[in-house]
Design brief:
Layout: E1 7-16, E2 26-29, H1 36-41, E3 45-49, H2 52-57, E4 63-66, E5 79-85, H3 93-106, E6 107-118, E7 130-138, E8 143-151, H4 159-169, E9 172-179, E10 182-188
Parallel strand pairs: 1-7, 2-3, 2-5, 3-4, 5-6
Antiparallel strand pairs: 6-10, 7-8, 9-10
Amino acid sequence: MNQDERMYIIENQKVTIEREINGDKILDIGGGGEGVIGLCYGKNVVAIDPRKDELEEAPDGPLKIVMDARELSFLENSFDAVTSFFTLMYISKKEHEKVFNEIYNVLKKDGEFVLWDTIIPKYDGDGKDIFVIQLEIITPAKLLKTGYGVSRKDTEQDIEYFVKLGQKIGFNVIKREKQDQIFKIVFKK
């Protein structure tokens, strides 16, 4: 089976990023690559990514730091907001709770954690073991077309999975939106 035959593809998902994140200090988890949040909020953003090459690829504007979300090296209550734009799909599910705890610790009281991600169906052994999502991202700065891919094995997730995880950590869910195969959740500390 070639790589194309192994892909489970979700096509043409549209995401609109508006100027909706409040605060002067925004931490963007996984802010490398297209650096969508950094592109929209510029110098207000601290973009972290464990991969230096991904941060080098991201647009200028935010402060870029090589760092793993499982071990945030910031003081508690440092950020007004934290974002994760299609990043948690790349972090092992067994590490999600640790990441949520780290986010909770660095957020200020009443700070918001805004999470965008996708529904990844359970892998049923059908041979399509690579999950790919194609996105059209509409930002105030420009239109981006991109795709993200991960293994489907042990990566099943949906909006309820993240809602329950956030509540377990102590977040309140103040907004949840689902559109086709993608979703956005706004948590408040």
